[in-house]
């Protein structure tokens, strides 16, 4: 057991809480690895100043809106163009926040690049004459080290075996099928991909989709509905939130990675049943992610599976950020903990990160996958994945599995682990507050103040570092 600077180290001998209010735990099963996550407490004066900073921005925004409506101030903010006879289309709190906070530093978001998003990339410089309602290119670009991409294993490139194979697939299959899987859009390369994904994950079967976001949002309504209960981690991705809402099931959230809170809600669901009807829930689905993209934390999957078995629930695991990035052979958080993949009822992931492609997959039993093939909106209405994208995934996955006869895949996975640990360790040494698991490739560095978001992004671009800045409401304030 070790404890330092607000960090938590959990070993098979015991645990110690880390003081992070949304990360309380009870216990972890026996595991040979140390499980260390950093959630250093925010200094109280920093927290107060951060709230004060947002308060000042909101106050000044309201004053400026009042002066503008009274005709006492010129247009110095990005406002919706006024059309005679029409009420404002975007008049809401969201538009206020966008106008007075987001658009002030819009140059830091949605930056266009003009090169491969590899180890380095060329970021185009923009300027504006209308307070960032629109932007114009200056003609300059900055060559920066790519620290803001999810290209974890470096497979997103325009040269090499993956790119060459993808090019050949276009010559054989064309650019696309222009049809859904159920309407003449299912090629042999799609079947090959489904079989390889299932084998890679150690599952009975798999189905692939052309869009990662839709893999969650369009498939969840096919799995649960009215009379079912979804227990969702409070920090789940927007695609999981949307899919849960579209399903029509009752949704309850539990505190992030807090197994005590999850068990409390599971127990209440089993004992009390559906509200006002006292009938048992048709099914209970626990929805979690492998690695959380804003916090960098890793799900306590062994405990989730224990609770799933204890209360006869189902587990929906989103491995978008963990597949290819965790585990000795890149098979995600399940391999990271040494668990049996068949204990996961619905295993979802994307190809947009480690595999350098696009789309997503769902793996599970043959019965589950056949059900999705026939009932999922993503299978019925969306066109199938482009053959070149399929080939990119097939090639990169084969390299990771060592089927190319080299150790290139293993080398890249080991390099990612080394980079992750080194980067986190050195940032902490320099005094930064870094969140997340020590093995997580997502490395959140906290700057707190909204005014610092723009400053640090612009400074990093000038210094040759390409980073992503994220603020409220995409993260907790």
TrEMBL record:
Assigned keywords, A-Z: Acyltransferase, Endoplasmic reticulum, Lipid metabolism, Membrane, Pyridoxal phosphate, Sphingolipid metabolism, Transferase, Transmembrane, Transmembrane helix
Intracellular or extracellular location(s): Endoplasmic reticulum; Membrane
Keyword ATP-binding: no
Chief location category: endoplasmic reticulum
Tree of life domain: Eukaryota
GO cellular component, one term: endoplasmic reticulum
Keyword Transport among UniProt keywords: no
Any Pfam family matching the protein: Aminotran_1_2
Organism: Mytilus edulis
CDD domains: KBL_like
Alphabetized GO MF terms: pyridoxal phosphate binding; serine C-palmitoyltransferase activity
Biochemical pathway: Lipid metabolism; sphingolipid metabolism; Sphingolipid metabolism
Co-factor requirement: pyridoxal 5'-phosphate
One of the GO biological process terms: ceramide biosynthetic process
Protein name: serine C-palmitoyltransferase
Region (Disordered): 1-31
Catalytic activity: L-serine + hexadecanoyl-CoA + H(+) = 3-oxosphinganine + CO2 + CoA
All copies of domain Aminotransferase class I/classII large, residue ranges: 143-463
Membrane-spanning ranges: 44-63
Record-listed E.C. numbers: 2.3.1.50
Enzyme's top EC category: transferase
